[in-house]
Design goal:
The structure is a homodimer. By secondary structure, chain A is α/β, with parallel strands linked by helices. Chain A has two domains: about 210 residues, Alpha-Beta Complex (Quinone Oxidoreductase, Chain A, domain 1); about 130 residues, NAD(P)-binding Rossmann-like Domain (Rossmann fold), CATH 3.40.50.720. In chain A, the strands form four sheets. In chain A, strands 3, 5, 6, 9, 10, 17 and 18 form a seven-stranded mixed β-sheet that branches. In chain A, strand 1 and strand 2 form a beta hairpin. In chain A, helix 5 packs parallel to helix 6. The longest helix of chain A has 13 residues. In chain A, about 55% of the residues are buried. Chains A and B meet through strand 15, helix 9 and strand 16 of A and strand 15, helix 9 and strand 16 of B.
Chain lengths: ~350, ~350
């Protein structure tokens, strides 16, 4: 099959790879209908961390189950499934608490399963998924009945929609909250939608890009602030009646974005952060004095999939606009470039 | 009147000071029935921060209203009142949200009011309280009907009981939570009681001192762990079925105690911290990977006073055992020594 491999910074290629087959009784093989490039893929693409050996890429995909091992009972051949961006056994102390990202036997696509065998990346034609019962979520639809928009929405549940939801929960968003969102990538935009879904009364998207502002408004942003730094924080406070936002979603992961979040949240508010932290420092005495809480982390999208999927299928949420570009898998290198250069918010890839 | 003044490290004295009188229309003068020494008083007592000029001490007291200014309507002469450890106007954007510690016009005892006038400390015979309406909480009891135990319980509502409650809320304690408490001072012990009150199913007090362990058990600790560091974290996990505590209350404020808290909380859990941070660093990548949230800060005890007071008066909680020593105000220097040397958990002072 064809699969995406990162060889060196800015050198990503579609190559021939062995067709996946069942290796363990808990495996499933999934034929990929759609996958995509993640903001977090751009870090190794840019050489952080450095690429030491060729690496299979991609961790978000929707597909059809092609084969299942003897122990698999939660999904069947022919099922349409969403794969969360990590696999997990579904039974350990953390999985039963809804924190599948800390699963005792879990792992990431492109990595190794517990027997040490390579697990395919999502940016390919097919994927062997370990711990299929604990990982895959079946969609009660025939693959034939899924149009492009629904497919895109389902694909967001793999990562960005669940991650935006995690940021909103971690920031404490509830009925009537005022919210600011730092970061206008797909996760930030999904954070806007998640905040609306949780009942936020005001949602300020912090964005300088017209096209992204437009998507933010479609997904529920009531206001947009273009300024950054202290000026941006002041602009948010002015919109919200003089004090900062109750909740800030930090959806980037840089030191500057965390500073923006802390400047924008009101005393006693919460910052939910979901971008892998790079050069982030938490100023503990300021947090203490201002009673600002900080929560978040790697989003357990598996835990959120059932409720978010129900809302997608019922038409209550439509996160599909975060995909503004679609390409064939053959153009994966261009997909990375487009996202790296911020020409695309998020690129959907079809094998 | 007599009042406590810190002159230099380890040099605290009871001295003559001007009798407080009304200075503004929002003031009340309160005759102190009981005050106490706080763990946070020990920092300047030990010279951190250095004592630059003589400083009036004490910020926790219960007393009787002696005089009120023309604008005061929430308390009357003769009322028994609890003073939270900061004063606040009760009307600003933060006060109305229950975060009186960020009050636009608030401040601390021993400091200056908004007109720049000295405000008495609590460790004295009387205190002029600015913003009396927003600050003082009347107790529906005649001062004559308050026995020593109730007086001690009321005094904890000034600071330590509300602070322990804040730690528990910030850590996310709820029905059925497993909880570990780092710090066996009065705040930590109140944290145990607060966790029990909020419905925790298991409460592990981390303490090496027999007398404090005893108080912890009286207040609701189901288990005690004497070990520290990784060993202590393992001991807690063993008690709790193999993983760390859902919620950890960090009630010290040192780098070591925060490390203990982070080692003891389970992935996906919450740390609530209420000790003024000294040399504390928050390891953001670890927090992110493990989805550990960190919240807390200066406790808005004013916000919690009504509900905690109701529980004290109804006998549902009795935090009085955190006062293990009582002294006359004349012995305030010895009270500081006893707490500094950890001979006392918390000393109650009677003028």
């Amino acid at each position: 099959m064809r699969a995406t491999v990162l060889h060196a910074p800015y050198d990503v290629r579609l190559e021939q790879a062995p067709d996946p087959k069942l290796e363990g009784a808990g495996d499933a093989v999934v034929r990929v209908l759609a996958s995509c490039v993640c903001g977090s893929d751009l870090w190794p693409y840019r050489g952080d961390p450095p690429v030491r050996e060729p690496r299979r890429m991609g961790h978000e995909f929707v597909g059809v189950v092609e084969e299942v091992g003897d122990d698999v009972s939660a999904v069947r051949v022919g099922d349409l499934v969403v794969a969360p961006f990590l696999w997990s056994d579904g039974t350990c102390e953390y999985c039963v608490r809804g924190l599948q990202t800390s699963c005792r036997h879990g792992g990431g696509y492109g990595g190794r399963d517990r027997a040490g065998r390579l697990v395919d990346g999502g940016q390919g034609e097919a994927v062997r998924v370990p711990e299929a019962d604990g990982t895959l979520v079946p969609v009660p639809r025939s693959p034939q009945d899924v149009d492009a928009r629904l497919l895109a929405s389902l694909l967001t549940l793999s990562d960005v929609m669940g991650t935006g939801h995690h940021a909103a929960l971690a920031a404490g968003v509830g009925q009537g909250s005022t919210v600011a969102v730092v970061g206008d990538g797909a996760v930030g935009l999904c954070g806007v939608l998640a905040a609306r879904r949780l009942g936020a009364s005001r949602i300020v998207a912090m964005s300088r890009h017209t096209s992204r502002q437009e998507v933010a408004r479609r997904l529920g942003a009531t206001d947009v602030v273009e300024e950054r730094g202290e000026e941006g924080a002041r602009a948010v406070a002015e919109l919200l009646g003089g004090i900062g936002a109750d909740c800030v979603l930090e959806c980037v992961g840089s030191g500057a974005s965390m500073q923006q979040a802390l400047a924008t949240v009101r005393d006693g508010g919460g910052v939910g952060y979901v971008g892998v932290p790079h050069d982030v420092e938490l100023p503990v005495r300021e947090l203490f004095r201002r009673n600002v809480s900080v929560g978040g982390g790697v989003a357990p999208t598996r835990a959120y999939l059932p409720e978010l999927l129900a809302d997608v299928l019922a038409g209550r949420i439509d996160p599909s606009p975060v995909f503004d570009v679609e390409m064939p898998l053959d153009d994966v290198a261009e997909a990375y470039r487009a996202m790296h250069e911020r020409r695309a918010i998020k690129v959907l890839l079809r094998p």
